[in-house]
Amino acid sequence: MAHGGTDERSWVEVDLARIRANAAALVRVAAPARLMAVVKADGYGHGAVPVARAALAGGASALAVATLTEGEALRQAGIDAPILVFAPARPDLARRYVAHRLLATVVDWDQAQALAQAARELGAELTVHVKVDTGMGRLGFLPEEALARWEALAALEGLTLEGLYTHLATADEAETAYVRLQWERFQGLIDHLDARGLRPPVVHGANSAALLRLPETRLDLVRAGLALYGILPPNVPPRTRLQPALTWKCRITAVRTLPAGWGISYGIEHVTWRPTRVATLAVGYADGYRRALSGRAQVLIQGHRCPVLGRVTMDQVMVDITDLEEDPGQEAILLGGSGPLAIEAWELARWMGTIPYEVFTGISPRVERRYLGELEG
Ligand SMILES: Cc1ncc(COP(=O)(O)O)c(C=O)c1O
User: Fold this and answer.
1) Atom of ligand 1 nearest to the CA of 208
2) In 10 A of CB 73, how many CB atoms?
C-alpha cells in the first residue's frame, strides 16, 4: 500500500493474512457455532474495513460493531455480511438501520415498542437481537423480564426477532463461579423458551475467552474480538495458535551522545549517570504511547530492548541505546516484533496499567495504518 502523503513519524503495520488465519482458527474451534468477528472501535484500532474483509475471507459469517455509524461505514465500503450493532437501536434512527440492513439490538420493552412503530411507519421490517443482562449490569432485559415479554416481543409488527444474546463479565478471570452463574441464568432462559417452542434462530453469549475456555457457551454463534487480532485472553489454555496481527513502529529522529549528569525530559526524572547514547523517537502520548510508560517501557531497536528515559512527551520519547553495538537505523518497534524479544500487547498494557483492548483502541488516528498480506481480488 502506498505511504504517500504522511510524514512517517509513527505507523502500525497490520498483517491481514494473520487476521484471516486467526479467523480460520477460531472458526474451527467454534464449529458448529458460527463466528461473528467483532470489529467495533475501528477493528480494535486495526482498521475495521480491512479487518472485516480478512475475517470474512477466513470464514467468519457475520460482523459486530458498537455503533450505527460504524455499521454504516462497513456497508459503504461494500461489505455485505450480516452486521449486528451492539448499541441499543434508537427508534428515531430506525431509517438508517433499514437502509443499511443492520441488525438492531433491543434492550427493553419501551424501546422495542417504539422501534417497532418506527419500522411500521417506514413500511419496513427490522431484524433484531434481544439483549439479556445475566449479570454484566450494563444493558438488557433481566432474564425473567425477557421470558415474560418474549411472546409480546415476537408479536410486535415491524420487528423480526432473530437473535437473543448476553455478555459475560468474567469469562477471562481465574475464578469461574460468576461466569457459571451468568451462564446458568442464560441457559435457564433458553430452556424455557425452547420448552415453549419460542427459541429464536440465533442465540449467542461467548466472547473470545468464553469461546476458547467454556465450550458450552458456543451455542449458535460466538462473538470474538481480541482473539481475532491474535491476542489470547488471560486464563485461557494456549491450545489455539493465534498470531498477533499488529506491529507499532516509529521513526528515530535523532541519535546523540549526552554527557553524564545530563537531565532528560520534563521534570528531569532521569539524569544520565554515564555518557549516554540517546535516541529520540517520533512518538508520544498524542499518538497513544501513553505517559504512564514514562521511565518504565522498553522499545525494540535492531532486536535489542532499549529503556525509555524520563517522561514520555506529547510527540517524542527518548530511549537509551548506549548498549547497542550496531547502528540504530531509522526505526524502533513499540509493540510487536518477532521471536522471544517481541514486545507483547500484554507487556505494553502492563507498563501502561491497562489491558490490550485499551492499548489498541488508544493508538490515535494520527498513527498511519499500513496493511500487509492484502487479500487478492
Ligand atoms: C457485546 C460484546 N460481545 C463481544 C465482545 C468481544 O469481546 P472479546 O474482544 O473479549 O472477544 C465485546 C467486546 O467488548 C462486546 O462488547
Assistant:
1) 11
2) 18
Question: Is 36 a member of any domain?
Answer: yes
Q: Return the pLDDT at 5.
A: 55
Residue tagged active-site, from 40, 285, 289, 371? 40
220 and 313, same domain (yes or no): no
What average pLDDT does the segment 33-61 reach? Answer: 98
Nearest-atom index, ligand 1, CA of 38: 6
169 & 26 share domain = yes
Residue 28 makes CB contacts below 8 A (sequence gap 6+) with: none
How remote is the CA of residue 33 from the centroid of ligand 1, in Å?
16
- Tell me, yes or no, whether 22 and 154 share the same domain: yes
Indicate if ligand 1 lies below 6 Å from the C-beta of 167. Answer: yes
CATH number at residue 179: 3.20.20.10
Residue 267: give the domain boundaries. 246-343
140 CB less than 6 Å from ligand 1? no
Tell me if 56 is assigned to some domain: yes
Whether 65 and 130 map to the same domain: the answer is yes
Q: Are residues 263 and 200 in the same domain?
A: no
Q: State whether 193 and 260 are in the same domain.
A: no
Return phi, psi of residue 127, to 5°. Answer: -90, 130
Confidence of residue 2 (pLDDT cuts 50, 70, 90): very low
Tell me, what CATH number does 303's domain have? Answer: 2.40.37.10
Q: How far does residue 47's CA lie from ligand 1's centre (Å)?
A: 17
Which residue type, as a one-letter code, is found at position 35?
L
Q: 22 in ligand 1 pocket by Cβ < 6 Å? A: no
User: Cα(161) to centroid of ligand 1, in Å?
Assistant: 22
Strands, DSSP E only, in the chain?
10-15, 34-38, 62-65, 83-88, 103-106, 126-132, 159-166, 202-206, 221-224, 246-258, 263-264, 270-271, 276-281, 298-301, 304-309, 317-320, 331-335, 368-372
Same domain, 172 and 199: yes
Q: Per residue in 275-333, pLDDT tens?
A: 999 999 999 999 999 999 999 999 999 999 999 999 999 999 999 999 999 999 999 99
Q: Tell me the CA–centroid distance for residue 3 and ligand 1, in Å.
A: 32
Look at the chain and report how many structural domains it folds into. 2
Q: Which atom of ligand 1 is nearest to the CA of 226?
A: 9
* Contact 10 CB / ligand 1 (< 6 Å): no
Does 127 sit in the ligand 1 pocket, CB within 6 Å? no
Q: Are residues 225 and 331 in the same domain?
A: no
The 10s digit of each residue's pLDDT in 135-163 is 999 999 999 999 999 999 999 999 999 99
Pairing relation of β-strands 202-206 and 159-166?
A: parallel
